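User: Fold this one for me? It's diguanylate cyclase.
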Amino acid sequence: MGARLYLFLALVAATALLALASGAPAPADRAAACHAYSQGPLAPDAALASLDWRCDNDDWEDGHAITWLRYDTSAQGEPPRYFIGGTSVFERIGAYALADGNVVAQARFLPGEVDPIPAGAGFSLPLPSGGAAADTWLIAIERPHNVTIASEARLLGSDGKDPSIRRGMVLLALITGMLVMPLLFDAMFYLVLRERFVLLHAGMTVAMIGYLLGSGGVACAFVEIPVNWLARIGPVSYALGVGLAGLFVHAFLEPDALSGRMRRLLKRTAIWSMIVPVFAGLQLPLTQSFDNRLYFIAFLPVIPIYVAAILSAIPRGSRAAWFLAAAWFPVVAASMVRLLRGMGLLPGAGGPDISLFVALGVEVTIVALAIADRFLAVRRERDRAVTKARAFETLAEHDKLTGLFNRRALEDRFGTLRADGFTTLAVLDLDHFKRVNDRYGHAGGDEVLKCAAQAITPPHGDTLAFRMGGEEFVLLLRGSDTFARAENKRRAITTRIAASGLVDTPVTASMGIVEVPHGALADTGFETLYNRADRLLYEAKAAGRDRTMTERLKVFHPRRQTERRAAA
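Assistant: Here's what I get for diguanylate cyclase.
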């Protein structure tokens, strides 16, 4: 299946999932809120009368000492019982019930006193009793670090843990499963493919799971986590995941897919996103006035650079870039919406960023497929490299002219061949071969050498033939009648060359052959046996050529101690 088909299927699936995720309606009993800001504490009645209230549900701001929310509940039948806010770090929340401008009930809550909503990306706190007759509710959020705590806030008759939350929990659990499975693939791939990008993808996946557990509120279903810590887990995990994603792209794209400048820019951007947004995501008390803006502004250059890197790799023929484009298209779209909501430029719809969670699940799954595709490609490349190396090794160990093994192959394997029973070594040399070259030229001489090689080429595995160089050959033999078999090979040279018609005079060979059974000599290495056989060859040459000189060494068995005493 081609990369473009993967892209098409991914976009179709992502579009369907995002549409499904974003189609959930907002709660029907959400009250329309007005909001205002103050740089210090105010009495509720003074805040109601003096603050600049904005009732258009946009133009949200962060960095203020106190964010105020106003709800008109006079027209509602059932009085609200709970305040629901988006997950964020804050110092304290005050809830005030007013009737005709007078406070009739009030309560204040610290972060440890609010109840995080599992799979709800928010928290709930009970409104003070005695506010049933209130026509106005004021909520004062002190030192909020994120505008979503207010922009996604609402008053409800319940604590927000309705059946829709359970449905959301099931969806988030499925997405978590989508994120966990690629981790198993990464572990298996890394056992075989020791590539850095596999570890980076695993780290990116772990960070995205952390984001899902934190910002999605999934962790609250299993352990009790204070809302202030829960509010830090998501942003920090997301920033780490974005940085690891950039490093993954840097390592995963083919070496020639990006220019040197783009590679450097991509790596620096990834490191930037792991430092600045992570620092802002910690939401320290000293950074309350600017950390939310810093967090989202720090991401503004990241997304365009990542997208530019992937798009610039596609015209260069990068197969990996197609997978990344398919994986990151829904993530980029959902991240842009999250960025605008986090900066207060888009009103929040309440609840977790389901569309972003779905996009992350799609992204990690497609990238896992991309790693599998790269795994197969790398394995094919390595198989070709091994085949090529073996071919070169074969060429290095074979004589180019005759196709026989060469001296290197004999020396490298001699110990193993001796252990396999090759105890007889014969050295053959064509007689007066210089005359053949002088009369028929080197081309004619080469044909004679090939014909001689064919004559001694063994028909079975008990005889091995090697060309040592020039007109000299070596035979290794094992089994019975090795002398006779070697002699037959020597004579076959003359017969084969005569039958070929290459020359009109006989071409003979001389041979020296030595058999050294195991244990006959303490040192029976190649040089030892070769020198013995070579000496016998020259004795055959001196005796008139076209003959064989042989030597068989006997195994010496020392007598036992008792035998020596008896002999004495």
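One thing worth pointing out: The CA atoms of residues 37 and 264 lie 43 Å apart.
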